[in-house]
Amino acid sequence: MCGIVGYIGDNKACPFLVTGLQRLEYRGYDSAGVATLQQSNGIRLTKVSGRVAELESAIDDRIGQGSLGIGHTRWATHGAANQVNAHPHSGGAGILSLAHNGVIENYESLKLELQNNGYQFVSETDSEVVAHLIADCLKEAAGDEIAPQDCVEAVQAAIARLRGTYGLVIIFRDFDDLLIAARCGSPLVIGVGKNEQFVASDTSPLVGFTDKIVYLADHQLALIRKDNIQVLHRDEGRVRPDIQTLSSETVDVNLEGYPHYMLKEIYEQPQSITNALRGRIDYDNATAKFGGLNLTTQQLRSVKRILLTGCGTSWHSALVGEYLMEELARIPVEVEYASELRYRNPPTDHETIVFGITQSGETADTLAALREMKRKGHHTLAICNVIGSSIAQEADGGVYLHAGPEVGVASTKAFTSQLTVLSMLALYFGRLHHLSFEAGSRIISEMEKLPELVEQTLGCHEQVREIATRYQESDNFLYLGRRFNFPTALEGALKLKEISYIHAEGYPAAEMKHGPIALVDENTPSVFIVPQGTVYEKVLSNLQEVKARGGPVIALTDHVDPQVTKLADDVIQIPQTQDFLQPIIASIPLQLLSYEIALLRGCDVDKPRNLAKSVTVE
Ligand code: F6R
Average pLDDT in the 281-286 region? Predict the structure, then answer.
């Protein structure tokens, strides 16, 4: 995790560094720091334990003068979230300063060696090891008289010894026209300007500064000067930088009057679902169409099994995807946590394709799982939101969500867009096999209603706010649903726990009596997702079992019958749709409920404690 930025050019570095770090705070917000260089004064450094806003106030004139600089916003891995462990870190008594994103696995042995060579460590981080290691290699390479080329060679020699992942930006005390960036497993992108260059962990900091970008690939190192960039690959030597144009979808994000990004993103869902559907419906053939799967129709028809993988909310989408594919396409599906898949060795045949589901496209486990499956010869596809992200680049093909930037740490619109895309994929595969033209047409017309139905569902906000007021003090919640809405229950529980720090469990409603029902008491609300359909009566029975034990019940249903009204303490009515689309609708009140409870409890909705939006470490 962590966000890193760098600037070199004719202007002052800090305006970009600070703006960039603000935009990268979703990657971590435990501490922040910047280092700038002014040749006469050497490297100036300031760091704070806390947010980028505090860092901004701590930047004084001396730091603000530098036209070369780096910055970092941290999600702590090695060492507490305090000022000493904040980046940038200095190497070799201040000869260089670096910011690091990633994890160095062999840092302990390297640290011991460097300590034996006389290097003094001030922090507990693995990153400081890299700083001293480069300084040590520089001493070896250059002796007393250092040239810029020595710095490059020292970085190359140091990173050759690292095991793990890194995105690095490095500045050197003696060179005010040299910024080095290096990547292995942690994303880095260079923004190309006129007499200035920018570096960042992703493209969001670059918006408004430049629209010309170069993605660094693994094992590449960039030697950046204000008027040119050289890219060197570990094995291939010098490579030509591939300058691309920044996608117009990576727009500058602001709150547009909303108090939080999470709320804004909840309310954007009618539009984000419209975007996910746009251009993907083939009315003539009553199916969906995708431009980037990179397989022929014949190859797609011979797919015998689908493996869906992801983490967190994206894993919940995968679970819905399993129901969808099996129901609509009759293709066997398996769902795996990416963190498990990467170390499992599941028997798979060559007719299995693998989908990695990810909002950010940077989740380390999902990336590693896809790589492993690709290595085994499977066709890998990404269902991804962030254009040009590592996973989007690494997969053999895929489908973009086009949901627009999701800034709130709790995923909302990306989830419903993932479900929309998965529904279309299920329709597509279904039409390749047994689904009739009529059935395909019916599914399309239901899917096209989704934006309007989500808009209607948002109308429950006031009622949800009132319910939240009554349950804000609860320490435990249960979320219960069946079939398509079992994953919806998991997602509802995850939303509540991550932003309000309330313990919540999601279960298939009938599973409750095998254990979790013991948790039910008058202080433990149960949220039932109980729309009409094949298991409606069954879920009602489960609801009665909770009620009989004195547990408060909040029911989400598309059918207000007297039985539900009598049993439930609160009934939230949601619009009717086909069962396989219900998770999209039902998740809206659950997102609002967690948002309102978190607000009432005074939690930082957009930046919940201990979390980061993009989990780029294992
Ligand atoms: C929860 C949440 C996380 C992410 C997970 C995967 O609200 O946002 O659980 O879903 O970290 O992230 P992506 O989808 O970016 O791979």
Answer: 97
**Whose structure tokens read 């599973």?**
511
Active site residue 2: yes
How far is the centre of ligand 1, averaged over its atoms, from the C-alpha of 33 (Å)?
A: 26
Give the CATH H-level superfamily of domain 3-245.
Answer: Aminohydrolase, N-terminal nucleophile (Ntn) domain (3.60.20.10)
Two tokens at 396?
A: 């053999």
Question: What digits encode the pLDDT tens for the residues 444-481?
Answer: 999 999 999 999 999 999 999 999 999 999 999 999 99
- Looking at the predicted structure, is the pLDDT value of residue 91 above 80? yes
236-257 pLDDT, tens digit each:
999 999 999 987 666 657 788 9
Question: Which of 342, 411, 419, 611 best tests ligand 1's pocket when mutated (most atoms within 8 Å of CB)?
Answer: 411
Q: Are 338 and 366 in contact (CB under 8 A)?
A: yes
The 10s digit of each residue's pLDDT in 129-174 is 999 999 999 987 766 688 999 999 999 999 999 999 999 999 999 9
Tell me how far apart the alpha carbons of residues 304 and 128 are, in angstroms, rounded to a whole number. Answer: 49
Domain 459-605, what architecture? Answer: 3-Layer(aba) Sandwich (3.40)
Phi, psi of 335 (to 5 degrees): -120, 130
Ligand 1 binding site (Cβ under 6 Å of any ligand atom): 310-314, 358-360, 363, 366, 410-411, 494, 498, 614-615
What architecture is the 252-448 domain classified under in CATH?
3-Layer(aba) Sandwich (3.40)
- Regarding pTM above 0.70, the answer is yes
The SS3 assignment for 409 reads coil
Residue 304 known to be catalytic: no
